[in-house]
Amino acid sequence: QVDAVRVYVNSSSENLQYPVLFVVRQQKGVLSWQVPLIFRGFYQRTYNYQEVSRTLCPSEPTPETGPSDQIIFVDVASMAPFNIAYELLVTRLENFQLETSKAFNFTASPSQPQYFLYKFPQDVDSVIIKVVSDAAYPCTVVSVQDIVCPVYDLDHNVEFNGVYQSMTKQAAITVQRKDFPGEQFFVVFVIKPEDYACGGSVPSSIHGNVNRTWNLQRTKNLQVTIVPSIKKSVYVQAMFFSFLSFLSFYLGSVVVAFVHYISTNMKLTVPFGSVSITGSGIMTSSHPITASTPEGSSYGAIDESSSSGGRQLSSPERRPPAGSDTDSSVEEESDFDTMPEIESDKNVIRTKVFLYLSDLSRKDRRIVSKKYKIYFWNIITIAVFYALPVIQLVITYQTVVNVTGNQDICYYNFLCAHPLGVLSAFNNILSNVGHMLLGFLFLLIVLRRDVLHRRAMEMKDVYTLDYGIPKHFGLFYAMGIALMMEGVLSACYHVCPNYSNFQFDTSFMYMIAGLCMLKLYQTRHPDINASAYSAYASFAVVICLAVLGVVFGKNDMWFWVIFSMIHVLASLALSTQIYYMGRFKIGKCYLGIFRRAAMVLYTDCIQQCSRPMYMDRMVLLIVGNLVNWSFAIFGLVYRPRDFASYILGIFICNLLLYLAFYIIMKLRSSEKLLPIPLFCIVATAVVWAAALYFFFQTLSSWEETPAESREKNRPCILLGFFDDHDVWHFLSAAALFFSFLVLLTLDDDLDVVRRDKIPVF
């Protein structure tokens, strides 16, 4: 048992010119202070205290000398030309050493700080120091310091040594035995003279021009409990759980692929004239189809059987030979667009009231497929250039936290932050492994479909078949990379989560939502979808706006006005492009698109309000614009501080709206949902609902001060290792994976349908 001594002094003197000086000399150090004791706050405010109580650095008996009495010298002096009365009291502390798992209550104030000793038990390698208080204020600093004298226990020096964090009602610090060679440490409690650091305001008694305050009552009752942290075996269990949970998805995918392989080998085919469609949706034929296709007709041409009015639009270009769909083609998309017959046909075709997929899949498949593969290569380039500086920055953040000991830099859930190596919260990083594993699995699934499709094309002349949705996999590959990068960047953000680097966690979320919308639109508009360059340029603009929102979005009204205008105008411009299927160009005058939008509003909503020319598209765009305008008004009125999440909400709502519209129109068109996409839709809805439940269990918030954020901290809920936010990571990764599978398999039922029978919406 270690003995400690506490010295209490009191002086009635208020003369700041002649304070009473107290110097305590011990065997291993000297401690000094003055009365009145002066604390300095913001704006040159001073807080003076006439009562001071300090704990002296304890001396532990050594095996050589054994127990001995402590010899302490207390010197009292003052330069005052008159006598000053003071009171001196020295007492022995009965409960200086804290015990494991036993709560201890005490009181502290700015001039009467407290600290206690804790020794690691033999079988404990890590402990969590939990501090609670019923009152939020006064603001408190909890510090863990090595056994070194003097102990830094005043407001102006508590940050000089050890690990520390501010607190209002709750604090938690994880301490490891390896960080303290002596296997013991001091827990220091300091009450700050002001509450700015914890989000409080200036006390009402000192508002105005009064900059000097005497004996302000700032006493706080605290309770400290030190409990053992998890053992190393829990780390191993958590890692096994994380990897095995998501490797089970690989096993499920293998089972589905095996069942598909068996069903294919059993010759489960459906005859379709001279064509047969296998159960996988891969089209084959028992013999080359030549009789039904006129010589010289172009790929995707509309014949007499089309519902486009009986007009046959053919091209003198001969179709490419079988198996020529390779990436070695040197043709460019512009070569095809400048062909006279295509220029004359496409504007006529796209003005039809009822469009079919054959109308919007007329371009050479090799060129279109190559165009969409640019999405894949571009996102890899973006990921590398974006991730490397992010990784470097968060490593710097973690290094600063470890070197300075300032745990107010990062907004962890300190009640469930398990360190490993240099990382302060390894559990928050490990829980992102699902995004990377499932993103890679999705790439493998897409690769399998791509390979099967290529094999079918090499075996037969599929250009004459003209069945199903055109198979372009570039956007799917990009989505898989984006899912993996979301896991990487989310892990980087959780190395040290704070206000400055939150956009790391959301940047690829924007890209995932945007790519999903582009893929959904590309499904039935393969010829007119956005190019990779314009799409990624748009994402870059969004990320720039997100950065500006982080800097200016908190209080600046002008930023919200400009952003709302950009949001509304972009919605109108995009709506006009979608409504007219990209058939007009903005030209030299950038206001032309808005004039066209006004003309659409006049012709379709005023002149023929009862029946617009494109009813389905008009309904979607009206609802979409109402949603986006509502977001713009909400942002303008409430100005949410979490601007990155606000933009992400806009993306997600637009994606859900478009997906719901697509499925409704698909069912309206008498199309079917096969068992696999139906299962994926149900799984997506269920898993997203569960994920969002855990997402809204707020465990920290960088919108507040670090001390206020800790009030939201909660213990672990899964395996004693993962908290609610980690469960959100697990479930959101699975939900995104199922969402991607929905887009991948949604139109598998159309593989047996001719493209001139598949409606466009």
TrEMBL record:
<feature type="compositionally biased region" description="Low complexity">
    <location>
        <begin position="305"/>
        <end position="315"/>
    </location>
</feature>
<keyword id="KW-0325">Glycoprotein</keyword>
<dbReference type="InterPro" id="IPR025958">
    <property type="entry name" value="SID1_TM_fam"/>
</dbReference>
<feature type="transmembrane region" description="Helical">
    <location>
        <begin position="429"/>
        <end position="447"/>
    </location>
</feature>
<keyword id="KW-1133">Transmembrane helix</keyword>
<feature type="transmembrane region" description="Helical">
    <location>
        <begin position="375"/>
        <end position="395"/>
    </location>
</feature>
<feature type="transmembrane region" description="Helical">
    <location>
        <begin position="238"/>
        <end position="262"/>
    </location>
</feature>
<feature type="region of interest" description="Disordered">
    <location>
        <begin position="291"/>
        <end position="337"/>
    </location>
</feature>
<feature type="transmembrane region" description="Helical">
    <location>
        <begin position="558"/>
        <end position="580"/>
    </location>
</feature>
<protein>
    <submittedName>
        <fullName>SIDT1 protein</fullName>
    </submittedName>
</protein>
<feature type="transmembrane region" description="Helical">
    <location>
        <begin position="502"/>
        <end position="521"/>
    </location>
</feature>
<feature type="transmembrane region" description="Helical">
    <location>
        <begin position="618"/>
        <end position="637"/>
    </location>
</feature>
<keyword id="KW-0732">Signal</keyword>
<dbReference type="GO" id="GO:0051033">
    <property type="term" value="F:RNA transmembrane transporter activity"/>
</dbReference>
<dbReference type="GO" id="GO:0003725">
    <property type="term" value="F:double-stranded RNA binding"/>
</dbReference>
<keyword id="KW-0812">Transmembrane</keyword>
<dbReference type="GO" id="GO:0005764">
    <property type="term" value="C:lysosome"/>
</dbReference>
<feature type="transmembrane region" description="Helical">
    <location>
        <begin position="727"/>
        <end position="746"/>
    </location>
</feature>
<feature type="transmembrane region" description="Helical">
    <location>
        <begin position="475"/>
        <end position="496"/>
    </location>
</feature>
<dbReference type="GO" id="GO:0005886">
    <property type="term" value="C:plasma membrane"/>
</dbReference>
<feature type="compositionally biased region" description="Acidic residues">
    <location>
        <begin position="328"/>
        <end position="337"/>
    </location>
</feature>
<feature type="transmembrane region" description="Helical">
    <location>
        <begin position="676"/>
        <end position="696"/>
    </location>
</feature>
<keyword id="KW-0472">Membrane</keyword>
<comment type="similarity">
    <text>Belongs to the SID1 family.</text>
</comment>
<feature type="transmembrane region" description="Helical">
    <location>
        <begin position="533"/>
        <end position="552"/>
    </location>
</feature>
<dbReference type="Pfam" id="PF13965">
    <property type="entry name" value="SID-1_RNA_chan"/>
</dbReference>
<feature type="transmembrane region" description="Helical">
    <location>
        <begin position="643"/>
        <end position="664"/>
    </location>
</feature>
